[in-house]
Amino acid sequence: MVNDTIPGTGIEIPEITQVAFVVEDIADGMDRFGGVLGIGPWDVYEFEPPRLTETTFRGEEHEYSMTLALADLAGTQVELIEPKEGPSIYTEHLDEHGEGLHHVACFAFEDTEAVIETFEGAGMGVLQSGRFVDTPYWYFDTAAELKRSSVSVAAMGAAKPALLRGDG
Predict the structure, then answer these.
(1) Residue 24 burial (C-beta neighbours within 10 Å; 0-12, 13-18, 19+)
(2) Which structural domain range is residue 137 located in?
(3) The domain spanning residue 138 has which CATH number?
(4) Does some domain include residue 13?
(5) What's the rounded Cα separation, in Å, for the pair 15 and 59?
(6) Within a 10 A sphere around the Cβ of 167, how many other Cβ atoms?
(7) Tell me: the pLDDT tens digits for 50-101?
(8) Is 51 within the bounds of a domain?
(9) Is pLDDT of 102 > 80?
(10) pTM here?
């Protein structure tokens, strides 16, 4: 059954590259996800200037930073995010929902500009964006359409991100 009130994008997501969770403390999160689910080893990265640039939040230029922990689970990247400085969709998530699932991401789009235009055209604009080293990223406002205000869809370009190459 198709619900005509939900805007269709026509986008076919080639893969779910990443599943991400917001946590209050990165070390504690790694311990919990490692202990309960056996996920690890973890690589930890600081997303902050000068390597984090072109950051936006809710349509305006805005600085924020975060610590990320990344691990592989059967070919899917698991990401833990601890917000550090400045308001962001991560701090909003913690304030409104506490720790938990934040987004799913695809790093395999061939034409990210077309993906952005399609989501925006369907009324699901960019909530937050930025560039880490050489890799741009975008989070789309899919809360109303997915009926889960704590889950968003993120996208990165087809070029293999620095973090996935191991030089992030």
Answers:
(1) exposed
(2) 18-158
(3) 3.10.180.10
(4) no
(5) 27
(6) 9
(7) 999 999 999 899 999 999 999 999 988 999 999 999 999 999 999 989 999 9
(8) yes
(9) yes
(10) 0.83
pLDDT > 60? residue 138: yes
Instruction: Give CA torsion, residues 164, 119, 85, 161, to 10 deg.
Output: 10
Only one residue has tokens 């936006």, namely: 56
Does the structure show a pLDDT above 50 at 10? yes
Distance of alpha carbon 76 from alpha carbon 86, whole angstroms = 29
* Residue 166 covered by a domain: no
Tell the burial category of 147 from Cβ atoms under 10 Å away from its Cβ (0-12, 13-18, 19+).
Answer: exposed
Dist. CA 115–CA 11, nearest whole Å: 7
Residue 1 located in a structural domain = no
Token pair in block for residue 80: 């833990």
| 8-state DSSP, 27 | H
Output 159 or 155, whichever has higher pLDDT. Answer: 155
Query: For the chain, what percent of residues have pLDDT higher than 70?
Result: 82
Domain count, the chain: 1
81/69 Cα distance (integer angstroms): 7
Q: Which residue has the tokens 């990443």?
A: 18
Give the distance, in angstroms, between the CA of residue 108 and the centroid of all CA atoms in the same chain.
Answer: 14
